[in-house]
Request: fold
Amino acid sequence: MTCLDAQTKIIAYIEGGMDKDTRIDFLKHIRSCDDCREELDIYYNMIEGMRQMDSNMPISRDFSAELNMRIDKELRQSRKKKEFFRYSIVIIIFGVLGFAIIGYINFLNILYSDEQNKIKEAQGEYYYSDYFDDVLFEPENRLLNININVDTTEEKSFYAKVREYNAVSNLH
Ligand SMILES: [Zn+2]
Reply:
């Protein structure tokens, strides 16, 4: 915004007749330009002073300080809105990413079980999934089962039989 732009908007600003974006541009210019800032100060003093005289209010306030506070407040509000907007975007992006990752993992799971089903089908009609699924798809569990199922009583009875046999042969 140029000085000319800013100076034609001074009265509109003081009377509050300005859209938000223009007001922020205007205030940023006022903050960085001493000439326009002084001009705004003069007009503000004049217009506010006249308004207060018209309404028979005691004119004892510091208009310049009041104007400063008003500018600070309006710039702060616009910054807060901008930050809130930025945080919202970040949160939305993370949310979308999260859903995408969960969706992708589900998709991989579906692909995997699909593949397993195709492998099973490929085994043909003589394939007995009840018997061989464990061996084909969970060989580690199968090994574990084998280890657990090792029966030591059979071994004992075998030696017992040998001892019995020996005992019988010794009788002869
Ligand atoms: Zn200026």
Q: What stands out?
A: The longest helix spans residues 63-122. Residues 3, 6, 29, 33, 35-36 surround zinc ion (CB under 6 Å). Residues 3-111 form one domain.
